[in-house]
Amino acid sequence: MKKMLATILLTALCFSANAKERTVDFSVYVINNYFTCDYVETVTAKYIEALGGEALDVECRGGLPYDQWNRVTAVIDSASADEDNTVLNTLTIKSNSRMNRRITDNCSLSVKVLDGILPAFEVEEVSKRDTCWGSEGRFNYDLTLRAFN
Fold first, then answer.
1. 47 Cβ contact partners less than 8 Å away, ≥ 6 residues apart
2. What is the pTM for the complete model shown?
3. Which secondary-structure segment (H or E) carries 50?
4. CA angle in degrees (0–180, nearest 5) for 118-108-71
5. 7 assigned to some structural domain
6. 50-69 tens-digit pLDDT
7. What is the per-residue pLDDT across 4-31, written as a single tens digit (0 to 9) for each?
């Protein structure tokens, strides 16, 4: 029994050594758009997963029915691809892609959430273009990440 517990503990310690748990705080405000916190939390968690992370906790304050601002705190596990961080992965997120339309069709919300969560990841390079005005418009992120699972 003691040997089994020691093995479990050792495994947990090895896993947590590779984890990169980070917390980000950001606000979402989109002209003439109001969001419930549930919706913003879901969109945030889905973008975290799209970047290769795991949303350990996403918490939102504000939003409907109280106010137009949503304040978000997200705890993200952006575990590295390998221990040496030598693997670089490229990723493109576009507003007109099928993956993005399944997350949300609101251009400004997508950009605010992506800008809010990117600091939790080890982004080597980012090229961003957006022409969002409220919910309308288009965006494109070309990313090179070290912390992509």
1. 93, 103, 110, 113, 114, 117
2. 0.79
3. helix 37-50
4. 65
5. no
6. 888 899 999 999 888 778 88
7. 333 333 333 333 445 578 999 999 998 8
142 strand-pairing partners: 92, 127
- Match 């919300």 to its residue by tokens: 109
Is 137 part of a structural domain of the chain?
yes
In which domain, by residue range, is 67 found?
20-145
Contact 115, 123 (CB under 8 A): no
Residue 79 has pLDDT above 70, yes or no: no
Q: CA nearest 108: which of 43, 36, 59, 63?
A: 43
Residue 11 lies in a domain: no
The tally of domains found in the chain comes to 1
Interatomic CA distance for residues 48 and 50, integer angstroms: 5
What is the Cα–Cα distance from 115 to 107, expressed in whole angstroms?
Answer: 12
Query: Which residues lie below 8 Å from residue 141, measured CB to CB, with a gap of 6+?
Result: 91, 92, 93, 94, 114, 126, 127, 128
Q: Helix count (H) and strand count (E) of the chain?
A: 4, 6
Q: Which residue has the tokens 């405000």?
A: 29
Per the domain annotation, does 86 fall within a domain? yes
